[in-house]
Specification:
The complex is a heterodimer of chains A (287) and B (805).
Chain A (H helix, E strand, L loop, with lengths): L6 E3 L4 H11 L3 E4 L5 H6 L7 E4 L9 E3 L3 E5 L4 H6 L1 H6 L1 H7 L5 H6 L2 H6 L7 H8 L2 E6 L2 E6 H4 E3 L2 E2 L6 E8 L6 E7 L9 E10 L2 E10 L6 E2 L1 H7 L6 H14 L10 H22 L2
Parallel strand pairs in A: 1-3, 2-3
Antiparallel strand pairs in A: 4-5, 5-10, 6-7, 6-10, 8-9, 11-12, 12-13, 13-14
Helix pairs in contact in A: 10-11, 11-12
Chain B lengths: L1 H4 L2 H8 L11 H4 L16 E7 L5 E7 L1 H4 L4 E5 L1 H4 L6 E3 L5 E3 L5 E2 L5 E7 L2 H10 L1 E6 L6 H4 L15 E2 L2 E2 L5 E8 L1 H9 L3 E12 L8 E7 L4 E6 L4 H12 L6 E4 L15 H13 L3 E4 L2 H7 L2 E13 L5 E13 L26 E10 L5 E3 L7 H19 L3 H8 L8 E2 L5 E2 L4 H12 L1 H16 L5 E11 L11 E2 L2 E2 L2 E7 L5 E5 L8 H13 L6 E5 L16 H28 L6 E4 L2 E4 L2 E7 H10 L10 E6 L8 E11 L5 E11 L6 H20 L31 E4 L17 H18 L13 H10 L5
Parallel strand pairs in B: 1-16, 14-15, 17-20, 18-19, 27-28, 34-35
Antiparallel strand pairs in B: 1-7, 2-6, 2-8, 3-7, 4-5, 9-10, 11-19, 12-17, 13-14, 13-16, 17-18, 21-22, 23-33, 24-25, 26-27, 26-32, 29-30, 30-31, 33-34
Classes of the chains: A alpha+beta (287), B alpha+beta (805).
The structure holds flavin-adenine dinucleotide.
């Protein structure tokens, strides 16, 4: 558990960080909280000659909550996401999900940017961001562009971000008042990644489901935004049949792998149970 | 004098002796980050070692190329078996009478085995160089299943080719290590053949790992000028390590000083000798510089001693009324690539023959076959006396299985089979003499405390609700009554590598009445400095706060066999009391002289000797100590000190009654412990607070083992659980609330009646958690399934019983 040697850079702005990345190509990688990257380096699974620490870059910090959109700097920690009252009031799903990540020590340093940029299917925030329809702002040498969370993930550790781009900000639409939400996660212990997790948003119009969004975590090599599952709820009264149809549709699109948490049939079953609980809780909170 | 106005109760309280919940004196430094662990040791010019380990579970080592590694600046040496062979150190003896490769000698037998040892002047350079050592392997067929190992043509230990006799008798197959038997085979089989009822089950206690918070490590420092070797290390048995190092290195024992500094948990993992120690010593001898080696977490989990891995096939016979008539057990023990168990020599399966448990079973038979496989060596006593958790798990599962077969309540079945109080000392069918016990009292106390009948009624209601579709949760009630066997042990039958398992204490009283005590044991978190001072305080009347306790330095402490198997209090604790009594006997003579009466006319009273019938005439221990050094007393040598080496006449037999209540979510496989009641009887209680802490810690390890902790291998012999992501270590979040209780049945042969407690909660806890899981599914027809009861396995049980619709 001793990493190989590397050179350490600590730029103060995004432009300098990008130029360091440009200069060293795939020999360089940015580090945010380091709680995913440093273990990989210690295991010598990531071997980098240059580490670009983002912690001095002020423009990547801070949380702004507007009427329609919340903007999170990529360097916002999971702890800050939990303790920001404005964010919790506007998008309570974020706090509920962030509280289920690891333990306080990890959350003090782990960042939202690192969590979503990492591309590890075990991370909870990619699915969360897909459920919320977040937009990722990426800065590169030629300026910035925006990619939807729902289009960002290609395969495990492969994303739409170019190696020389930095994720600077995340833009999240604020759900309408009365939106029901739930983040449900089964894990073996504190500090473990999900056996199955799901994020659910539901809005009601009278007694009818007006819109829904469902995302599943650690059940495929990317997060799964389960469009058909959400569609099964929309237009219904969220009756038993609709909920069961949504679960069935979600199970249809996940593709879990066998690991120490259990084999595929177990994971699919648990995914259904977890999603059903998330739908039930979100429905009970929707008004 | 202030002293004179103190009441006897005040004087007793002032001592903080036995029975007091004295705060742990160790915690002052630990809570301030001022502990001194092996990795805190820094010496001038110190070098660092790191291993190249095998990625394969079974392979021939074709070649090792050191060139690239040696080319890195700062690399001092790269050692392989070839370098150690001229010193005769490429293999080392194990504690179990086998031998083990220090560095791969032509082949590797498990993933993570040590192949080369890199020495560099910087820890990071050592790691970089280890990556550059090129090893060419030729893969061999891998054997991970112990039953398969006894059938296959694949030979694991080619070095033993043709040896039909092992350290413990005949070998039946090239992958067989030993057969060990206890009890009467024919008689037991006859009882089983003629019994009203027989329950039969395979009880598997999976492979797990002690995984102490601090991993293993050492600093070896050979002083070429004085010829003395100092070896700091995470040793649970520093004196035994000194002797072993002397025997295998040829360095005279007086030129070796072994020091165990603060140790961050051992749990059996730090009893044996590891290649890291040998390589560090060799490297220090060769370079003349101190060499530090500290393993990382993955190395610890993969390669240092595992625990359990016992396949226990059992048969239990009873009358139709439930009186047990016989017990039969055949165990297949997976020892991995080398037999490196740390058991007393005559007990290659430890004290597995305590497997008749708390029950009066007239006839029994046990056989254990030890087997080599392509897994890491070990088989240590992880928070239990040698193989006692395996034994307790076996009998406590067999009792449950029998209760199902008899359609009888398992609490009642236990009650009618307990050894009765009037039967002690009790001769067990498998050869032990249980010193004392009062099982019925403990059991009834436990059943009343938890409201057993109400729990069963609640469970029946919950089952009804489950069947009616009102809940998806099942309630399980786990019961366990365990009997431990600890305090190894009497030298007549307990030795390790020929070293008798006595222990020792030396006490020096200073002229002003404070004291220094040294023991042959070594604390790894048990709080020896706190509790042993309390024994002395009560024995000789000096306040515990005035007594310094030292262990772990072989140059100063008396020889002893160390701390594991709950032996410190039963053996070294007894030595402490006996040394205290020697001091008290001398103090009595001094007091009599000072009081000008006959020796027989003074008696000990808390912290002083008083003249019988005239309590106003006394000499305090402080006064006596001063006189011992400073007054010429005819016929008595100056000074006040004593040493005692204690060879226990018997083992001690702590016991306990545990109850676990949990709820299982059949859809997710999650289990939530809602109540855990633990009654322990460890005889005389020295420090109730430390006992409670030990019980909490042991129960938490038991929870871990029962509910998720395992060393799992795939069919290629790859370790699947080599990090703390997959190896279950409960956090505060997963740890339930514990309710502790006790009864007190002092050991009749121990000087203060104490029995040892540190391991009881692991021994009793594992079957209790597991029985609760089994119990939840009992009404659906489950009799036996295997630990660990993680979410997936519980879900699979529910699924197999058709509970998912
Ligand atoms: C014990 C433990 C338990 C954990 N449990 C969970 C859990 O349950 N759920 C969960 O979701 N996570 C979990 N984590 C991960 C934790 O949340 C991480 O902190 C997080 O995934 C990554 O954030 P970071 O800031 O540490 O990123 P880093 O480790 O610094 O970086 C991760 C990757 O993202 C890249 N990166 C980081 N920031 C940027 C950026 N702004 N632009 C482009 N690339 C970037 C890095 O180059 C690196 O490749 C756990 C971690 C630990 C140690």
């Amino acid at each position: 558990m001793i990493p190989a040697g590397f050179e350490y850079h600590r730029p103060a702005d995004v432009a300098s960080a990008i130029s360091i990345l440009k200069q060293h190509g795939d020999e360089a990688r940015v580090v945010a909280g380091g709680h995913s990257l440093i273990p990989m380096m210690k295991l010598r699974m990531a071997d980098l000659a240059h580490l670009v620490d983002l912690q001095d870059i002020g423009e990547m910090k801070g949380i702004q909550v507007g009427a329609d959109t919340a903007v999170l700097g990529a360097m916002v920690t999971q702890h800050e996401m939990i303790t920001h009252e404005g964010l919790a009031a506007a998008i309570p799903l974020i706090r509920e999900a962030a509280l289920q990540i690891a333990d306080p020590q990890v959350r003090y340093v782990g960042t939202v940017g690192g969590n979503v940029a990492n591309g590890d299917p075990g991370n909870d925030m990619p699915g969360l961001m897909q459920c919320l329809d977040a937009q990722f702002e990426l800065a590169g040498a030629d300026g910035s562009r925006t990619v939807a969370a729902r289009d960002f993930y290609e395969a495990a550790y492969f994303t739409a971000r170019d190696d020389e781009e930095i994720l600077t900000r995340i833009h999240i639409p604020v759900p309408s008042a009365g939106t029901g939400y739930a983040y449900e996660k089964q894990k073996r212990k504190i500090g473990d990644y999900a056996t199955a997790a799901s994020a659910v948003l539901i809005t009601m119009d009278g007694g009818t489901c007006a819109s829904a969004s469902i995302a599943m975590t650690n059940l495929a090599d990317t997060p799964i935004w389960a469009e058909a599952a959400a569609a099964a709820l929309v237009g219904t009264s969220l009756d038993e049949a609709a909920r069961a149809a949504a679960v069935a549709a979600a199970i249809d699109v996940i593709d879990p792998v066998s690991d120490n948490r259990g084999p595929v049939d177990f994971k699919k079953h648990v995914a259904g149970v977890i999603l059903r609980r998330a739908i039930d809780r979100a429905a009970s909170r929707a008004s | 004098m202030k002293d004179e106005v103190q009441t006897p109760a005040e004087r007793t309280a002032n001592l903080k002796g036995m029975g007091t919940s004295r705060k742990r004196v160790e915690d002052v430094r630990f809570t301030q980050g001022r502990g001194n662990y092996v990795d805190d040791i820094k010496m001038d010019g110190m070098l660092y070692g790191d291993f190249v380990r095998s990625p394969y579970a079974h392979a021939r080592v074709v070649s090792v190329n050191k060139e690239a590694a040696l080319a890195i600046p700062g690399v001092v040496a790269v050692l392989t078996a070839e370098d150690l062979e001229p010193l005769g150190l490429h293999w080392m003896p194990t504690l179990a009478g086998d031998k083990q490769m220090v560095l791969a000698d032509g082949k590797v037998l498990f993933q993570g085995q040590e192949v080369a040892y890199v020495v560099a002047d910087d820890r990071y350079v050592a790691a970089d160089a280890a990556e550059l050592v090129e090893v060419e392997y030729e893969e061999l067929p891998v054997v991970v299943d112990p039953f398969e190992a006894l059938k296959t043509d694949v030979v694991l230990r080619e070095d033993l080719a043709g040896q039909t006799e092992g350290a413990h008798g005949p070998r039946k197959h090239h992958n067989h290590i030993f057969t060990w038997e206890a009890g009467e085979k024919d008689a037991t089989e006859a009882v089983i053949a003629g019994a009203d009822v027989v329950a039969e089950e395979m009880v598997y206690y999976h492979r797990t790992h002690p995984c102490p918070l601090e991993t293993c490590g050492c600093v070896a420092s050979m002083d070429k000028v004085t010829g003395k070797l100092t070896l700091y290390g995470t040793f649970q048995a520093p004196h035994a390590i000194r002797t072993v190092v002397s025997l295998i290195s040829g360095i005279a024992e007086h030129n070796i000083r072994v020091i165990s500094p603060d140790i961050g948990g051992g749990f059996g993992n730090k009893v044996g000798a590891y290649p890291g120690y040998v390589c560090s010593v060799v490297a220090s001898i060769v370079t003349g510089k101190p060499v530090k080696w500290i393993e990382d977490r993955m190395e610890n989990l993969m390669s240092t001693a595992f625990a359990r891995d016992y396949w226990m096939q059992g048969k239990i016979a009873a009358t139709s009324e439930g009186k047990i008539t016989g017990l039969w057990c055949h165990t297949t023990a997976d020892h991995g690539g080398f037999d490196a168990c740390a058991d007393p020599t005559k007990f290659p399966a430890g004290f597995m023959n305590i497997c008749t448990g708390s029950y009066d079973i007239p006839t029994a038979y046990l056989a254990v076959d030890g087997v080599y496989t392509n897994k890491a060596p070990g088989g240590v006593a992880y928070r239990c006396s040698f193989r006692v958790t395996e034994a307790a798990y076996f009998i406590e599962r067999m009792i449950e299985v029998l209760a199902i077969k008899l359609n009888m309540d398992a609490a009642e079945l236990r009650r009618i089979n307990f050894i009765r109080k009037d039967q002690f000392p009790y001769q067990s069918a498998l050869g032990w003499e249980y010193d004392s016990g009062d099982y019925h009292t403990a059991w009834d106390k436990a059943m009343n405390a938890v409201g057993y009948d109400d729990l069963r009624a609640e469970q029946a209601q919950q089952l009804e609700d489950f069947n009616a579709g009102k809940t998806r949760k099942l309630m399980g009630i786990g019961l366990t009554h365990f009997t431990e066997i600890v305090g190894a042990g009497p030298v007549k039958n307990c030795d390790i590598l020929g070293l008798g398992m006595f222990d020792s204490c030396e006490i020096r009283i200073h002229p002003t009445g404070s004291a220094l005590a040294r023991l042959g044991t070594i604390s790894q978190g048990q709080g020896h400095a706190t509790t042993f001072a309390q024994i002395i305080a009560s024995e000789i009347g000096i306040p515990a706060d005035d007594i310094t306790l030292e262990e772990g330095d072989t140059d100063t402490a008396p020889y002893g066999l160390g701390t594991y198997g709950s032996r410190s209090t039963p053996v070294a604790g007894a030595a402490t009391a006996m040394a205290g009594r020697k001091i008290r006997a001398k103090a009595q003579m001094i007091a009599a002289y000072l009081l000008e009466v006959h020796d027989d006319d003074v008696e000990f009273d808390i912290d002083r000797f008083v003249v019988k019938g005239a309590p106003e005439r006394f000499k305090t221990m402080k006064e006596i100590a001063f006189a011992a050094y400073n007054q010429a007393i005819p016929g008595i040598e100056p000074g006040l000190e004593a040493v005692s080496y204690y060879d226990p006449p018997n083992m001690t037999y702590p016991f306990g009654a545990y109850v676990c209540v949990l709820d299982i979510d059949v859809d997710t496989g999650e289990a939530e412990v809602r109540q855990f009641y633990a009654l322990d009887d460890c005889g005389t209680r020295i420090n109730p607070m430390i006992i409670e802490g030990q019980v909490h810690g042991g129960l938490t390890e038991a929870l871990a083992i029962a509910m998720g902790q395992e060393i799992a291998y795939d069919e290629m012999g790859n370790v699947k659980t080599g990090t703390l992501m997959d190896f279950f270590w409960p956090t505060a979040w997963e740890t339930p609330n514990y309710q502790t209780d006790h009864t007190t049945t002092p050991s009749p042969h121990h000087p203060i009646g104490a029995k040892g407690v540190g391991e009881s909660p692991n021994v009793g806890g594992v079957p209790c958690f597991s029985n609760a899981v089994h119990d939840a599914f009992k009404s659906f027809g489950l009799t036996q399934t295997h630990m660990p009861h993680d979410h997936w396995r519980i879900w699979k049980t529910a699924n197999g019983l058709g509970l998912h619709g």
